[in-house]
Write a structure and sequence with these properties.
By secondary structure, the protein is α/β, with parallel strands linked by helices. It has 2 domains: 3-86, no CATH class; 94-370, Aldolase class I (TIM Barrel). It is 40% helix and 14% strand. The protein has 12 helices and 12 strands. Helix 1 (7-28) packs antiparallel against helix 2 (32-46), helix 2 (32-46) packs across helix 3 and helix 5 runs parallel beside helix 6 (185-194). The radius of gyration is 20 Å and the shape is globular. Bound molecules: iron/sulfur cluster. Iron/sulfur cluster (SF4) is lined by residues 108, 110-112, 115, 117, 121, 151-153, 179. Iron/sulfur cluster binds next to loops.
Amino acid sequence: MKIVSGFRVKLFFFKLNLKLVFFLIQKYGFGKQFKVKKAEIERFKEQFTIDKRFYKYLKHNNRVYFNCNIPGIPFTDFFERISNLASENQENHLSRLAIVQIGFTKKCPLNCEHCYEGKILNQPEAITLEEHKQIVAKLQQIGVPMIQFGGGEPLNRFNDLIEVLQLANTSSDFWIYSSGYGLTIEKAKQLKKAGLTGVSVSLDHYLESEHNAFRRNDKSFKLALEAIKNAQEAGLLSAMTICVTQSFCTLENLAAYHQLAFELEVPFVQLMEPRATGNYEGKDVKLNTEQFQILEHFYKNRNSDKKFKNFPIIQYTGYQQRNKSCGGAGNRYIYIDTDGYTMACPFCQNRKSHFLNGTLLTDINSLKEEGCELLN
Ligand code: SF4
């Protein structure tokens, strides 16, 4: 794990900025359009920053990663695509899509306390392998740089996953969101060879007993740790994702979790808030204002304080959503559910038409109009 901070981050942006200016001048000349595009890209970048700054990045295989939701830089046609992604022209919905998550399967060996797909788990699959290939091909044609496979447990459709990855081109980063259940070293190596970028493993506590109780499985903690080790050994990136429940949300717990990620050499930690959907539907799981403040403080402090410069980079989408805007809700992210239908995100249950045969442009428009449930 090679976390870079301080002057080298500034230097990276200085060089990147020079190249960007060069690209924009070549494309638009040094006039009004240049200024408009440059400003759009600055505003786009700020969506992901703390106080307009990135403090750390991970260097891996000659690419730079600011967090596990931003594809490694550079990616194919980098400046052209960044310029499209940053576009504020509301007509350009599709080329603004930065991240798409796909519910790759309905199958899962677990039954976690918070599962947002809890109600449909282990029903027959609705998306065929052929359709998955078409979905990914369509996303790559649109230019989506980050494609994530969730579920269910995506490793449950391992052979299909391999086929889909093999068919895809290298213009997108691919991650799986997994409980780690069944990620052997052999499977990790096959996934890497097929083109996977990283594995985000759900780990919901730093204590084995607490995590296993949450996941309702007494082997889950060990399997998650083994999956992280196997992913790393295979040369995949790794992340730890936690659903920060009301009882977990203290600075002491968050610090212990961050310490565990550091010891496991996991470069990214992702903090998720519990939402009252799926197994949590109708339950009082939402964090309160004080708990949001704890998360925000932790997120900002741990990413910016020099004391933690070698510690894993923390990603907390809730901060961006509350302080900037929600990147989901058709804005720059969509979720394709396990039936193949377009939604704002896995939590906002506002299903639109089928991703392959439906009315994607209209859907994205209405998702944007409806906005993020969290902010309404
Ligand atoms: S949260 Fe993930 S691992 Fe847990 S039951 Fe749901 S799909 Fe399976």
